[in-house]
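Moderator note: this is an archived Q&A kept for reference. The question asked for a predicted structure of one protein chain; the sequence and the answer are reproduced below.
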Amino acid sequence: MFKIGTLELKEKALLLAPMEDITDPSFRYICKHFGADLMYTEFISSDGLIRDGKKSVQKLDIFDYERPIGIQLYGHLIDAMVEATKIAEQAKPELIDINFGCPVRKIANRGAGAGMLNNIPLMIQMTEAIVKTTSLPVTVKTRLGWDAEHKNIVEIAERLQDVGIKALTIHGRTRAQMYKGEADWTLIGKVKNNSRMFIPIIGNGDITNAEEAKYAFDTWGVDAIMIGRAAVGRPWIFKEIKTYLETGEKMLPLTLPEKVDLAKQHFIRSLETKDGDRGIYEMRRHFSNYFKGLPHFREIRLKLLTSLDIEEINELLEKIRIQYSTF
């Protein structure tokens, strides 16, 4: 066991990364079913939250079955982030996470997300202000540094710990890399094994299967691993990894009928938790990924990605079950 503040998590915990337009309540429901130990909301704009923006406020919706869960915030102004923290606290998450890692240009160029890696004093000042604002544990997710010449995560980690964060997630790339190239876990391991560090260190980046997860735990000694893009279209990755860590055996792959049932369950949850046609629009990415690799799938896929008729979508899912029954 290890602790993030007062929150206890199992040894070698698996976390679901916060991802915009992906880690909504319907997807979190599925990932929890497959064993995610801690999940996060989609990241939430501090500006949107304090202005009572509908999309930002809706992201605060959390359910008891999802717990433990963290709310992730991003922004470039200390006052706005402090106020957003107070609002987010009312949703009663288990923790508040600060996003200092998003590399997307429209966010980073404003100085938010990974943009904070260009202004470490402001990053530390903002973090300290948020820690002092809330009684909840505050955690941070960030990257190795701004670019290859500024991989200063060891120093950053120490300074963040010094102002009171309770855990640190490190994505093994710089902001300049975006999501290209390979994640470098050596610096994640260096932070974890730094004698000055005593908070949990969570590794993130390029963990796509059970063997890679076991290697990361065994080699770098991280307390937990955060799974992001690898869970999209494959939320059962959490169960795959846990099965392998616990037994040394690989989990049997999901059958196509099981994937169809899962997609339908996910779709029902999406319709229940979103207004209007959003429940359909935001499932399209998942439909495409659940059935990636099926031969001669283009026609059904196009219909799944364009239809706004719930009955037709369910019929298409059943058609996949029948048409690919021997796949």
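Archived answer notes: The domain at 2-247 is CATH 3.20.20.70 (TIM Barrel).
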